[in-house]
Write a structure and sequence with these properties.
Elements: H1 3-11, E1 16-19, E2 24-31, E3 34-37, E4 40-47, E5 50-53, E6 58-70, E7 73-75, E8 78-86, E9 91-93, E10 96-97, E11 100-103, E12 108-114, E13 131-136, E14 144-147, E15 178-182, E16 185-189
């Protein structure tokens, strides 16, 4: 399928640049159209549209895009304003920052996923914390589909579980002092642990 037809069917756009399988690009790539990588790119990639890394593609770069579809190899961090998808053939080592992340069964991923907004928030706005540390191994029976939480949990309602290879959760903070009334005077009573 020609590149123009592939881009139209995959992303709804006719603007698509293809880096062929025998091409090596080293440096900084920027653009306002979709980019399909079948060859090798090293350095930095910054797009306002979609990055498609095909199974033959290798990217050793930090990537900043709107969407990323990874079927090849990526070594580096990806920041996407909309979504990142690792397909069954996809292999990635690096961190992902995107509000929507899809890791399909068979994909290989090692890094951290931050599903807070990829764009900076206005000052004073409440952040939506959603940091996921994940290692996906080939042969996992179910796909790992990760999406943004519906609403953030209050800080004291968050529970932590230990994942192999990570540090244990910190102990809960000490209980605050309790105020008790004795007549007209207020007395501060500290609870012992």
């Amino acid at each position: 399928m020609p590149a123009k037809e592939f881009a139209s069917s995959a992303t709804g756009s006719s603007d698509n640049t293809v880096i062929g399988p025998s091409i090596l690009i080293s440096g900084k790539l920027t653009g306002d159209e979709d980019l399909t990588i079948r060859g090798r790119v090293e350095g930095e990639v910054s797009l306002t549209r979609t990055l498609i890394v095909e199974p033959s593609g290798i990217v050793k770069a930090n990537v900043s895009v709107k969407n990323a579809i990874i079927s090849g190899v990526v070594v580096g961090n990806i920041a996407a304003t909309e979504s990142v998808e690792l397909t069954q053939e996809g292999r990635m080592v690096g961190d992902i920052r995107s509000p929507r992340v899809i890791i399909v069964d068979g994909a290989s991923f090692r890094g951290q996923i931050d599903m807070g907004d990829a764009t900076p928030r206005a000052e004073g706005a409440t952040p939506r914390p959603a940091l996921v540390r994940a290692t996906v191994r080939p042969g996992v029976s179910k796909p790992a589909m990760i999406s943004k939480p519906a609403a953030p949990l209050p800080p004291r309602a968050v529970t932590a579980t230990r994942v192999e290879g990570t540090r244990p959760a910190p102990p809960p903070p000490p209980a605050p002092p309790v105020l008790a009334e004795a007549g007209k005077k207020k007395v501060l009573v500290k609870k012992k642990k």
